[in-house]
Amino acid sequence: MNWKLKSVKKETDHPFLNFYTVTYEVDKDGNKYDYSYFMSSRHDEKHLLCETEDTSHPDGVLMLLYYIAPENNEISLLITKQFRPALNKYVSSFPAGLIDSNEDIEQTAHREAMEEAGVTIKNLELICPPSPTSSGLTDELNAIVMAQITGFKNKNLEEFEDINTELVPLKNIEDYMKSHFFAMQIRLVIKYILLRFKGQY
Q1: Does domain 60-196 bear CATH number 3.40.190.10?
Q2: Where in the chain are all domains bearing CATH 3.90.79.10?
Q3: CB 94, CB 186: distance < 8 Å
Q4: Cα dist. 57→49, 53, 61, 103, 142 in Å?
Q5: CB atoms < 10 A from the CB of 170, how many?
Q6: How far apart are CA 14 and CA 51, in angstroms?
Q7: 3-state SS class at 97
Q8: What is the pLDDT, as a whole number, of residue 160?
């Protein structure tokens, strides 16, 4: 099949996330059809990925932050527990945040690590480039970075951000996941980390 974007219609007008109808002309077996699809986006009409096809700039960054205790070299992951209104539930995850227009991935990671978790970081490594989070629902792209925690300070949360943080030793993380509600991608990233640090915990 051959897909050609015909039109984009913005259905809502909210400050952070909006609903769109996108219509394609689909050439299937020599016959042409109009096909409408429904999606959400953080972008305006001119900057939807279906318009720009630019997948180089993520909307947000997810931060896998680890701490090495100086007294015994024990490695722990920083886990957040945040209330998510869409689920009416607290969800265990990693610190994350949206990238401001004047920032790159590294700058956002340092800022959000301090704001959400109250930590300073070093040795930042990109472990997942800008990638779709839920391509059937939204054009949002996120990157994942890993970094080492170097210090602890006070968090700077927004008024209704309900985020708690906890350091969980890698040796205990699999049991921890059994009793906490994690997003699917976080569980997969934790599996990666366990392989990455195999033999060190």
Answers
A1: no
A2: 60-196
A3: yes
A4: 10, 11, 11, 11, 9
A5: 20
A6: 20
A7: strand
A8: 87
Q: What's the distance, CA 2 to chain centroid?
A: 31
Buried b (16+ CB within 10 A) or exposed e, 121-132: beebeeebebee
Using alpha carbons, select from 61, 80, 200 the residue that is nearest to residue 141: 61
The Cα-based distances of 189 to 127, 159, 175, 194 in angstroms read 10, 29, 16, 9
Q: How far apart are CA 145 and CA 170, in angstroms?
A: 18
| DSSP 8-state code for residue 138 | B
The tens digit of pLDDT for each residue in 134-184 reads 999 999 999 999 999 999 998 888 888 999 999 999 999 999 999 999 999
Three-class SS of residue 194?
Answer: helix
Res 201: pLDDT: 87
pLDDT in tens, 28-86: 999 999 999 999 999 999 999 999 999 999 999 999 999 999 999 999 999 999 999 99
User: What are the tokens at 65?
Assistant: 């932050």
The CA distance from 3 to 23, in Å, is 10
Assigned token pair, 166: 């906890």
Its pTM stands at 0.92
The reported pLDDT for the residue numbered 134 is: 94
CB 62 within 8 A of CB 144: yes
Cα–Cα nearest to 112, from 177, 41, 163, 40:
163
